[in-house]
Amino acid sequence: MSSDYAIPAGVVALEDYEALAQARLSPQAFAYFSGGAGDEATLGWNRAAFEKVRLVPRVLGDFAGGGTGLTLFGHSFAHPILVAPTAHHGLAVPEAEIATVVGAGGAKAGMVASTESDVTLEEIARAARTPLWFQLYIQHDRGFTADLVRRVEEAGYGALVVTVDAPVHSLRNREQRAGYVGPKLSEHANLRGLYTRHVAEAALGESLMFRGFLDVAARWEDIAWLRARTRLPILLKGIMTGEDAEIALAHGVDGLIVSNHGGRVLDTVPASLDALPGVVRQVAGRVPVLMDGGVRRGTDVLKALAFGASAVLVGRPCLYGLAVAGPAGVAHVLHLLRCEFEVAMVLTGCRTLADIGPQVIWPTDRPGGQ
Ligand SMILES: Cc1cc2nc3c(=O)[nH]c(=O)nc-3n(C[C@H](O)[C@H](O)[C@H](O)COP(=O)(O)O)c2cc1C
Ligand SMILES: CCCCCCC(=O)C(=O)O
Predict the structure, then answer these.
(1) Nearest atom (ligand 1) to Cα of 46
(2) Would you say 295 and 109 are in contact if contact means Cβ atoms under 8 Å apart?
(3) Where along this sequence does the record place binding of glyoxylate (predicted)?
(4) With contact defined as beta carbons under 8 Å apart, do 266 and 170 qualify?
(5) CA dihedral over 92, 94, 98, 102, signed as positive or negative
């Protein structure tokens, strides 16, 4: 690991990392990291949803014995902020996801490693000193997928996060305009040897989507198949409706992640924060519900938990921290967020995570007073 990684002076909040990262990354890599789908409406709404929620300040509370610890699927976490699964950390630093997991460990944050990492899942696990989950894209070759799950178990991962919201390549104009081209599937560190069938282009007048590709895309029956194959907890990532949450529970999943993939898949779907209450209501405490999308401030973490999330995941800011200062940058991003979250807890009268509830949210029908 390079010893040149240092946190630049003057970085005091997550947003400070974005411009610094842009200056260090190629235009193609920055477009890949920062962009969303289509016109990027959902990307903007993920932030706007947090900004429109107001908090209720409380004073003179007793915080003795307080803290941010929690248990998820039998594992202890120091705080409810995890690194979201994101692909291709090698675009940021040569050590790729190894640097990220070291940084996550430095901030005592859990991490979800992507199927599309630039180093193997085994290399990430060997470097991990923190709870580590694996994000699974179910591959068209189910035998290959089963082998991948076996590798994940053998490497000691604590949970499988199955991403279900991206069965097809989304349309990302910012990436296209910048000329970003990702590696072929079979060139990914975890997917070597996978036979790939690409449906990236269609002749004029032909259907791009319906030429056999979707015959092999994951379906609900694959979740039942997976459930039967592994004892690892399974979370589905990309659930945005109560209807899909209910179907997921019927398939025996252990947790859900409310997510619109950081606005990178279907543009103009609602913000994750706006979708969260509907999913939480439907799930009614049967399994933990996590969320991601637009979390940039400690107050955002507090708001997500007040709306019923057990924990949040953070995507782009970790990539920006990684690009700017390697593991130190990732740790700093997560540390800043945790510190801000603790300040927000104290100023809203919450001693532990169990104290965070709807009472911290200022009612919208009484904008001027409670
Ligand atoms: C560059 C990039 C790559 C991503 N790669 C993956 C991935 O491989 N698997 C996945 O499930 N989600 C992926 N995501 C989505 C994130 O897990 C997460 O849902 C999203 O980034 C959260 O929004 P935020 O970036 O506003 O925090 C990716 C996001 C970004 C920005
Ligand atoms: C079929 C979608 C593949 C996207 C892989 C990486 C990812 O999730 C992202 O860039 O976002």
Answers:
(1) 26
(2) no
(3) 32, 137, 172, 261, 264
(4) yes
(5) negative
Tens of pLDDT, residues 321-360: 999 999 999 999 999 999 999 999 999 999 999 999 999 9
Atom of ligand 2 nearest to the CA of 163: 8
Which ligand approaches the C-alpha of residue 37 most closely? Answer: 2
Residue 213: what pLDDT? 64
Is residue 326, in this structure, part of any structural domain at all? yes
The alpha carbon dihedral of 184, 266, 262, 21 has a sign of positive
Residue bearing the CA closest to ligand 2, atom 6: 87
Q: How far apart are CA 105 and CA 268, in angstroms?
A: 35
Residue 359 in tokens: 């009472």
184 marked as binding residue: no
Is 172 inside a domain boundary?
yes
Residues 18-40: b if buried by 16+ CB within 10 A, e if exposed: bebbbeebeeebbbbbbbbbbeb
342 domain-assigned: yes
Mutate to test the pocket of ligand 1, among 14, 15, 138, 264 (most ligand atoms within 8 A of CB): 264
Is 51 within the bounds of a domain? yes
Whether 82 and 109 have beta carbons less than 8 Å apart is answered as yes
Question: Domain containing 135 — which CATH number?
Answer: 3.20.20.70
Over residues 70-110, the pLDDT tens digits come to 999 999 999 999 999 999 999 999 999 999 999 999 999 99
Q: Residues with catalytic annotation?
A: 261
pTM greater than 0.90: yes
The angle formed by the CA atoms of residues 138, 294 and 267, to the nearest 5 degrees, is 60
Q: How far is CA 258 from the centre of its chain?
A: 10
183 is in an annotated binding site: no
Pocket test for ligand 1, best of 86, 121, 148, 330 (most atoms within 8 A of CB): 86
Q: pLDDT at residue 1 above 70?
A: yes
Give the tens place of pLDDT for each residue, 144-158.
999 999 999 999 999
* Mean of per-residue pLDDT scores for the chain: 95
Consult the annotation and say whether 300 binds a ligand. Answer: no
| Total number of domains in the chain | 1
